[in-house]
## 1
Amino acid sequence: MDGHDSPQTPKGSLRKFLEQLSGAGKAIGVLTSGGDAQGMNAAVRAVVRMGIYVGAKVYFIYEGYQGMVDGGSNIVEADWESVSSILQVGGTIIGSARCQDFRTREGRLKAACNLVQLGITSLCVIGGDGSLTGAHIFQTEWSGLLEELARDGKISTEQAQKHGHLNVVGMVGSIDNDFCGTDMTIGTDSALHRIIEVVDAIMTTAQSHQRTFVLEVMGRHCGYLALVSALACGADWVFLPESPPEEGWQENMCIKLSENRARKKRLNIIIVAEGAIDTQNKPITSEQIKELVVTQLGYDTRVTILGHVQRGGTPSAFDRILASRMGVEAVVALLQATPETPACVVSLSGNQAVRLPLMECVQMTQEVQKAMDERRFKDAVRLRGRSFENNLNTYKRLAIKLPDSEIPKSNCNVGVVNVGAPAAGMNAAVRAAVRVGISEGHKMFAVYDGFEGFAKGQIKEIGWGDVGGWTGQGGSILGTKRTLPGKYLEDIAAQMRTHGISALLIIGGFEAYLGLLELLAARQKHEEFCVPMVMVPATVSNNVPGSDFSIGADTALNTITDTCDRIKQSASGTKRRVFIIETMGGFCGYLANMGGLAAGADAAYIFEEPFDIRDLQSNVEHLTEKMKTSIQRGLVLRNESCSENYTTDFIYQLYSEEGKGVFDCRKNVLGHMQQGGAPSPFDRNFGTKISARAMQWISSKLRESVGKGKKFLSEDSVCVLGISKRTLLFQPVAELKKETDFEHRIPKEQWWLKLRPLMKILAKYKVSFEVSDASQLEPVQPRGPEEPAAI
């Protein structure tokens, strides 16, 4: 393989890494099976390239298990270029089919024979629970199948002995997210993108005509898509297979819809999973619901069935990164496997790649179905996992307002303020905070235009109905400013006194974090600041200490990825062209690095990994080599502040000069389009859930002090709420100070830097890669006391 050592990698560590993980003499078969899902191609690409990278042979198995049974031209060795340009394509390029033959022992005998002839003893299966169960059966029967084949003279005894065991690693590709043990399956996020695009479009027409829309989404046995899209668009009602509506739901739903209309809401959205049932396990159909609304309320009602649109289209940035991480992890797992290793699934828990025992996950997934069949719906929801349960509780809380008479008043006023630059998803966070606050009995106050508006007294009480329809709005409706509170402390304290503000929720980026530190420091002077204060990170740069993710970064990443897709297409047309694209992020390289991974870039220059002229030189040589292959285009990302002197113009000029006669160069600065646009499903959902959680924290702090009239003086009453690895954590800002590089406005340690080598390997650079500890398979769903951070 050509390509140079990435200059950042000492030769020794690379050698050691490749020795540890040598694929020499191994043959890996990769297949996609069952229903297709966006992101499967990204997974196939990662398996092929990582396999080749470590010296293994990788074979495409076309048309799923059918191709394995039929053999011949269905099993073909793949090379580096066979998976070029597929990252942005939905579906699966190697095809998928439902296969009856493989369910019989005869079929599996043929399949085993075909694999042994090519020496394939490692399988990577990308599919749903059916496909993975098939792989498990195949693995357990393998030695028996080979004995039989040897007896019948189909293979030699040497072959049978040499290939005596099969290793299987699965990745779950399914848009339903119906597999237990994994937080997100490949394709789920993209399916949500399709659903939300449709809902946003339907809302404008429904608004015009005061219509009610019944939307049917996929999910025969799993309500995940229905639930999350209902949460992300603020639907009036949702029907799920796991949590059927109580007896008498017909009347309750109609009351709810008419109440919403009475609050001046011009439309109703009802979301139905295709497998929706009532408590007697009878199906509830979209048509039934429509009939009900028309006859009971006389509203103009339309049904839209989304169908296969949800499976189609280009994979989202999240799915591409997820699938690329899983694909590489799957190859590592296969190389580390021994004859005793049971079949495993690679999946995501919070933000970490984990390996789980395949059959335990499958059994648990089947348990959910069993619970639903036996009408044990509480168990079904519990078995789906804590993130599903959290989503359901959050949805109920935000969708249904209790009558004022039933909400016990707390006599507390809570302020909500946006600080910093706008980020998509901020409004979803404000909506969730306001509604949770009201449901906990507080009065909610909106502060307009950041700390500056705070000082000027731009503060208004905000009600339940005022935040209706906010989840899908980009930017910041409250208005946001980068100004810090430092110079307005007197005025802000006075406003807090005037409005009797007893807690503060700040939604914003690095300025919000600095602002919190300033308010904390001002407590001695101004007792008004001795109240609980919590910050929810919202910035496209994803540079807030105390959280792995921030609201708005996913939307920006999708904008970057979409633009890169278009640019790559243009470059493919002109041939031999390299694009240099500048992304935002201040000194934080998150957008450039993850955008590079999602768009299949050749290099991404970031501040966190210093580079010099030799690196630039090596990248130019690498691209020159690439132009000799059939992939005649290049894509290079550069973070806006990665280097003072190696500016985008400098790199453009250097590449243009060095590439003369081989390739030409274009540059593109993406700019503020990265801050705009409608929030992605991830950001709506993340914003909603994390902000609701922050409000609950505020309420519990306020409840502690009831009747004591106590001032909050301790540092743990000023926190950042964030996701760290797998958990939701409240961390005092005072403690986060030591983890912060204030000069460059970034955390000192950033988790995503571990994914740097991934991008380089997939772009054919030789680097070493930190490998997870092989031997441990995790138990499925450990239930610890900490909060799960699944989105």
## 2
Amino acid sequence: MAAHRSGPLKQQNKAHKGGRHRGRGSAQRDGKGRLALKTLSKKVRKDLSKVDQRHRASQLRKQKKEAVLAEKRQLGSKDGPPHQVLVVPLHNRISLPEAFRLLQDRDTGTVHLNEWGSTHSFMLLCPRLKHRWFFTSARPGDLHTVLDMAKVADTILFLLDPLEGWDSTGDYCLSCLFAQGLPTYTLAVQGVLGLPLKKQTDVRKKLSKAVEKRFPDNKLLLLDTQQEAGMLLRQLANQKQRHLAFRDRHAYLFAHAADFVPSEENNLVGTLKISGYVRGQALNVNSLLHIIGHGDFQMKQIDAPMDPFPLNPRVIKSPEDPGMAMEICATDAVADMEEDLKVLMKADPDRQESLQTEVIPDPMEGEQTWPTEEELSAANDLLKETSKVVKKVPKGTSSYQAEWILDEDGESGGEGDEYDDIEREDFMEEESQDEGSEKEEEEECETVTIGESVRDDLYDEKVDEEAEEKMLEKYKQERLEEMFPDEVDTPRDVAARIRFQKYRGLKSFRTSPWDPKENLPQDYARIFQFQNFINTRRRIFKEIEEKEAEGAEVGGYVTLHVSEVPVSVVEHFKRGAPLIAFSLLPHEQKMSVLNMVVSRHPGNTEPVKAKEELIFHCGFRRFRASPLFSQHTAADKHKFQRFLTADLALVVTVYAPITFPPASVLLFKQNSNGMHSLIATGHLLSVDPDRMVIKRVVLSGHPFKIFTKMAVVRYMFFNREDVLWFKPVELRTKWGRRGHVKEPLGTHGHMKCSFDGKLKSQDTVLMNLYKRVFPKWTYDPYVPEPVPWVKSEISSAVPEMDVE
């Protein structure tokens, strides 16, 4: 009997666990001298006790609380900028002058009125509350003014109607503001005292319930008396501030005054002096300045005049009468401004940012040398070797005779011609049967005369027939795209190999390789690209947080000298439009390819085709461009979408100046009447020219004869050369079969195809072709002013109540 021998693998049974908790000694014995891995970290992590952990958490809470309180105390104080409040009436029954009259209480503080055209504003100084406010207003129908002033406002005060809340114009305004990003907001109701006493409580409850959908954590305040206006001011002063990401890292300024000094050479261009309070970050004179709606400019110098609206005015004692004192008002401060003028900073030409937006391409950069004689001869030899075909032929056959010998599965030209003749006869028979059935249907129908309305002629006068035809065609194209995505008809007048010569076939759209630097357009030579956009963005943001920026500090009243500004900017300001300036971060003036994720706005259902001109509000910029639409996926290739769909979030690709995310995005479309309709809303995704948008074209054919896994397909191509050209591309069917082209049949584009399974007669054979597409260079920074948005027949937020 042979003895048992143990194998090479030693069995080790699981040891019995003596208990749920082990001591330190047993853990060390089980470790058998092994040490734990060392964690590589720059920060020294110390194990804190529970008491120290609680102490550390309380310190962090205290620091955050102090930071919030310091920010709250800074805003509107004597050292900080005035608390800027934008008043937006959301209903046409709201009386804006009445609201301003209540807020301009002389008992509360000093009021300084200022009026620029249609934009009313005033400064309210309240030493008792140690706060100063700057109130401005904007009507919801004036879309550009509302959006621009909301970008710089600290608080938005929405005025609601007690019965309806807001009308359709106010609802449209709220949609745009929510998409752009709301700062701190407050809701006030005007007109409750005008209602019967019994109805006031019910109206407020019903309004609060309706408003809760848009403003979940709201508190409705009243604005009908001076006492309620005082409570509203206290609420504005003590409210916690909300931050907008796209403006917190920039220095920005709302112009309180502007002066234009024309240049000596040209009166249309000169130096613009903008005066206002610095907000956000410190303003450096060497950085570029973007004036919303007008473009990018350089600064010459920054002056620091005396603050025209001090919280505590200077008191000067008269030398003649020591007992008599006199306060310096705003007008006197402006008069003394030249005397107290102080130059904070002058531009350094070596450190100043350049205004260059595009790369000047060198046409000789991509030049290639002509091939030598040896390279040409080597290429010819390689071509001859690859063109040789090996055939089995009888002995003594010459090379000329071998060219005429067919393969085993080949067919002669005569058979193909006979096949085409048979098919032509069958087609003619089917056509004659169709004509006979149409005649029978016509005999069964009868005509009926219907009278016309007298008012139809008046209605047709208002209809633009050309616009109606274009819109109908777009609706048809969108419907066809939904039913048959990416399918196109093969042209009959142009060969398919010429029409689709820029397209290629892919084995797999997801995994097949595609070089992002291949066949780039000429416009790509004009743009800038980051080696690593994420690292550059992180580095710039870190410098903003850690480094102490030079220049004008936040809260200071300054005058900016902006050079080479057209005179139209100050004319625009004098007509009543707000003048708002943002400082640019490094590289933000340069052109590149921006990718934005947007979703269709539910209030607009018109079809929007790719490469149509749209109006973009991206961060603090406003421009016009023709975008591409593509799917929002995590792959390296993204399928092109011909229309902006309503059910999916798509990526919009466009040429535009570099903007660092996060930034909100609004897409508008200009109608024929001049109004701007909100199309989509979203956010900035990335700045990446290498993001590939791939357009797919699907050619369809129909199985004519089916032999199990083999089939004869027609109507995909219409000549033999096209079949041979696209022979390497894989085929698929709508029912999931895959196959390839075996050979062409005849000269009319029929082809023999083999598939991985039996084909159904009602199936459709498809061929996918792909090419990379690029956006159009139609960037225009100047957007025309929209026609004021008028009220349409849309239901308001709250149904109107019957008030006796």
## 3
Amino acid sequence: MMMGADVENGNLGPYQDRPRTFPNMRSKPYAPLMFRILRGINVRVLVILLLLGFGYVFYIGASTSPIIVFVFTVCIVSFLLSIYLTKWVLTKDEGPPEMVQISEAIRDGAEGFFRTQYGTISKMALLLALVILSIYLFRNTTPQQEASGLGRATSACITVAAFLLGALCSGVAGYVGMWVSVRANVRVSSAARRSAREALQIAVRAGGFSALVVVGMAVVGIAILYAAFYVWLEVDSPGSMKVTDLPLLLVGYGFGASFVALFAQLGGGIFTKAADVGADLVGKVEQGIPEDDPRNPAVIADLVGDNVGDCAARGADLFESIAAEIISAMILGGTMAQRCKIEDPSGFILFPLVVHSFDLVVSSIGILSIRGTRDSGVKAPAEDPMTILQKGYSITIVLAVLTFAGSTRWLLYTEHAPSAWMNFSLCGLVGIITAYVFVWITKYYTDYKHEPVRTLALSSSTGHGTNIIAGVSLGLESTALPVLVISISIISAFWLGHTSGLVDETGSPTGGLFGTAVATMGMLSTAAYILTMDMFGPIADNAGGIVEMSQQPENVREITDVLDAVGNTTKATTKGFAIGSAALASFLLFSAYMDEVSSFAREPFKQVDIAIPEVFIGGLLGSMLIFLFSAWACAAVGRTAQEVVKEVRRQFIERPGIMDYKEKPDYGRCVAIVASASLREMIKPGALAIVSPIVVGFLFRVLGHYTGHPLLGAKVVAALLMFATVSGILMALFLNTAGGAWDNAKKYIETGALGGKGSDSHKAAVTGDTVGDPFKDTAGPSLHVLIKMLATITLVMAPVFL
């Protein structure tokens, strides 16, 4: 970590009675190499290069399809809007000097950790790229590749290039999420001194900038790859690849995005929760000081963690979710169009890109619908922030329904089945309703305005143990409704697609799986607004920390506390949303995996019989993988938190003047501890996730070779993927909801209920919150990334299992 010498040594100047200023704690500001190169280019040269780049992109887009040109246009407009939002946020004042100094310390810590973490991830990505290259150079080819003349070397280079581009874009998405959060936090804090509504608007627009960039990058990255491959490989010309097979070349992009997202989520989650647990256990429980109190040596590490764990990791996470869903839907759309002999299949293939282009449009309107007020004076918000956010979400959903229906009529109309587009439009409506219901269910179980969290808070009045028991039971119960909703949505969408009228050469209906893909697109058709709400949470949390550390008036902290509590709920709801979309996307990727195996094996592969002992063992291994991964992730937080606890206790003992504001805590020491430990601890569970399916598939492939079952390895991996998906969804729902409920039960007591801050009930609630921290911000979010990564890695590595 490149922290300033002042922070590392704790020499932050005199610390007289309750100081209101903090000396500069920053070292040199950091920007990634790519951004530093761009800054060093002459502005005129840069403008010319950008125009040439845009011109070439539009040229290959026009050479591919007018639909691609439409996608490029919408994405560029959304990027321009994101620039406007950035300038709007950055024009807001940063408040008094003490706020600025604290914000700069947070920014320095976050950027330093990001640089180190992504440097490590980059090295691992390059190593994995070499492995993929080696496998593809020696693998068998499919009949489609042989027919198009696509050799092993070309296929290997395409897959590796797509993997590295996906990893790079996922990393940039993470950096964008972190970049805006470390600059918006202090502006939200400053706005809270004037108006709660203004603070809310700044936090939402800062999150909106990140969301538009992340979704836009996912869409434009896939569109550019598709168009480039289309032009380069001369798709659909005589003797070349068919357009319906082209989406399979994009799988590496999704794998690269998943790879980076998993390690970003693991490393960031371990960092943020280890610091949070250490700060709470010693600060709140042992010393009885408030959250984010400047006397707590771990407070800066905690605030840094909000940015690297919740913002950077969530940006990479949602980027990966959208990329995986788009690619899987493109594959299924191409496969269905080929079976149905549709003359122009481009509409079915490019439909996901258009849906997410409209997502950028409708989400932008939803973000801009949240406006500030000119009320003066510091006062509690007249309107619940959650209500304001829900209004914006409702506007986004209504517009999404209209644009989705228009998109299906535009792209999915075919003479083979004139009414099919209506069925697929209803599939999209199923997905949109599923997303809304998921958000509502998670809100019900995690918002302290509802009974479950209040019951959990009441259990704190009888002790720490009853709080833990109540939280675990709430988390277990919360898995029921989401699973029922997912089940109904999958069946409904499959049935609507199945009855769409699209049939293959034998007259068999073929639209079922594509109907499920369309429902997944519908669920993610408001993804940009969902990510905005998610980014709102850590920004509001950071703002509250800055207000507390700079010792602003109590009524300012009341405003940030309300925003923080709403942020906890929005983070929990978006995690529930992510789990639901992960379930549907994994179902699609599993179907694509079976088609890929069938192509390589040159024989049908449509069913997996779990009555075969080896296949059943594969399923058991898949479920075990989920539990072992979760255990290692939580244990990593526990071990790192122990180091933080010991360090914070040491400082309180060796510097007794800290409690009386006579000595300054060594904030940098805690930052350094959690940074180094999180980088070390993320390797083990991440490696487990990557290596397990490859090793299992290869070992059972060898066993199948000697026992006369050539597809045994592929079948075992399919069972592993199925069981891991089911177990992972349930585990992630439990972990995310229980953790969010524990957090908001503590927040509810801090509003003055059940004795308020410092009471025995509050101490028990803090214990529950501490237990839930690794659940909701480390293991839970990492699991739904793991589920999709398992699906993409099996798709990419399918030749290893045959």
## 4
Amino acid sequence: KKPETLPNKSQGLSFVRIHAPWHVLSREAELLKIKMPTKKMYEVKEEGGILKKLNEIWCKLTEPLQPQVPQKDNTKMKSLSYPFSREKIYFGAYLLTIFFFFFFFPSPLGISSLIANNVYDAAYPLHDLLYREWARYGVFYKFQPIGLIRKYFGEKIGLYFAWLGLYTEFLIPSSVVGVIVFLYGCITIESDIPSKEMCDQHNAFTMCPLCDKLCDYWNLSSACATARASHLFDNPATVFFSIFMALWATMFLEQWKRLQMRLNYFWDLTGLEEEEEHPRPEYETKLLQKKLKIKNTTTENTNEDEKEKLTWRDRMPGYLANFSLILFMIMLTFSAVFGVIVYRITTAAALSFSTNETTRSNVRVTVTATAVIINLVVILILDEIYGAVAKWLTEIEVPKTEKTFEERLILKAFLLKFVNSYAPIFYVAFFKGRFVGRPGHYVYVFDGYRMEECAPGGCLMELCIQLSIIMLGKQLIQNNLFEIGIPKLKKLFRKLKDERTEPKEINTNQSKDPQQWYLDYSLEPFTGLTPEYMEMIIQFGFVTLFVASFPLAPLFALLNNIIEVRLDAKKFVTELRRPDTVRAKDIGIWYNILSGIGKLSVIINAFVISVTSDFIPRLMYQYAYSQNGTMHGFINHTLSYFNVSHLKPGTQPENSPFARDVLFCRFKDYREPPWSPNPYEFSKQYWAVLSARLAFVILFQNLVMFLSVLVDWMIPDIPKDISEQIKKEKSVLVDFFLKEEHEKLKLIESFITHDKHRHQSGTKGQRIRAASFCQFSRSQRGSLASFSSQHTEV
């Protein structure tokens, strides 16, 4: 309808059903080169031999897990597909997808532009199925009906759920291996010699005070529980698990490329080319404003090309705003992390004043747990702010197309949320306890408050606590509660708003017999797949980046994703308006982000093992310094001596009951003893261990990278059967069109022979028609040659 004919809002909601006639659908299908099925069918050959038998066994075993949805009668037969042409009569007759491409395209005549200009309030197709076998929690154990999802929502959303399903399936083996590694730590905890030495009260390791004045000397055996817990995650099996997870990430990405290619083949996307997108309405509005401004202040030197597009000069204010605000947001994240550090230091000092012995003995546990919870709350709040800020920053950039807009939005949101989610974890893993100093020369944050140290068993246990609470908290609160609660609250708010603005008569009529379009209007509008991908990508980072410190991360991710698949399905079917279908061959920039995280995980895990854990110091002691090749004496080897008389005045423990009996205290570091010529300098052992740490990082990184490249090389991107089927389809297509042309020519010849009189009287007309068929045949062969070259390249 024209804008002036639309009803006013005071008259209530008005719905318009849009219909596209056949000639419009066929024209748009031809322009978009949408591949449509022909009448020709051919057999899809399956792999033979042992692979076929294994596939049959697998199908029988997983039969109870298959969704009960309509299936094709003969799945071994496939329709031959070819880009639609109005001149060909042998195509199938369904063109529903074209409707959405034409009317939702952000062109000046499309619905998107009319919505942007407030002509229409919303436009959406109607919901009608897919709940029983997909969007219920009761079918969590079943596979997803990916083909039906694709037909219902389009290829772009179908690829997302296919990717999510494959990722969830791949988490099963990594979860099993992670549980085995954790159980190995539980089983070997009683035989771990360093833990026994630390827990042995007969070993009189008198440690230096943890703070000035208020803290007393303490015995290392009081940290027995922390040392035993650290062994659960700090053992030789974690090195193997880190290598396994790096290869797992590579295999997952390779398998996804293969599945993506298989889906492209069965969904007739193999020949899909990226078409030039229409500009976004916001871009066209900005460009129109620029043209009007130039027209009012035009000069003869104005470049004509600059009038037709937005240049970098036009976007410079947006670029400056993006750079400055993103930098500010990153600094805000670092400030939040620093604020939590100050909280930990001051709270630990305050609890040390307590007269309660239990409170003083549990200072480290209390401070760690409360600080992690504060970190989680800050991360959740900043995540929501950063999402809105990233969208606003992308809008002021004024990208030309929807694809460019989406990619820039994804990069900004990912950068901000990545820094926000992992900054506290990076601090604990690589910075905490590294710049403390030594007794007598401590580093202070501010007057009287030292930089915080790691626990006697190392920072790995605290890193595990930090990672687990943040990961589980984000999954439980942000990924589940927010996804369920926020759409329902928005739906309720919109309903209450509509009830206030609509006339009572219309509201009463709709409540008695609500139509589907009215029900769908009350649902939340679909805003894209970026939030769905983002939460899974951040989870993928938790699973891979610091997996050396938390082997159970894949298990918790698996349990979350089993719910997440059905939660997303239910949200798409019952909480969101049905989105318009969008064709896509891949998941876009998300694959590059996944690949980058996989490569970064190799480097991070190498540093976690070599720097954060005690794996390298233990290895060096056993094979370089131990007299009998065992771990006996390792704790004494890692502790340095300090003469308590060298403490600065005013920092000695006050009211210490046994300060007079202590001549030397111990602290964890590799330094020369006070009686050596160079007291408190780094010892030879320190430099040897540091060299071994760096050597391990280089060796680990190169070994894992080599194995990843080897796996990538061994697994082809395109499955062999799909590659052969593409070649076969090309051959069958050529034969099919040649046969059609031959039949047409035979029809012309028979027609000419049958009626010589009409042939003689209309020789000229017949020749023209025959020539047109010959010309059509040549042009068709040209299009087939183009089709052939595309598939040969694939």
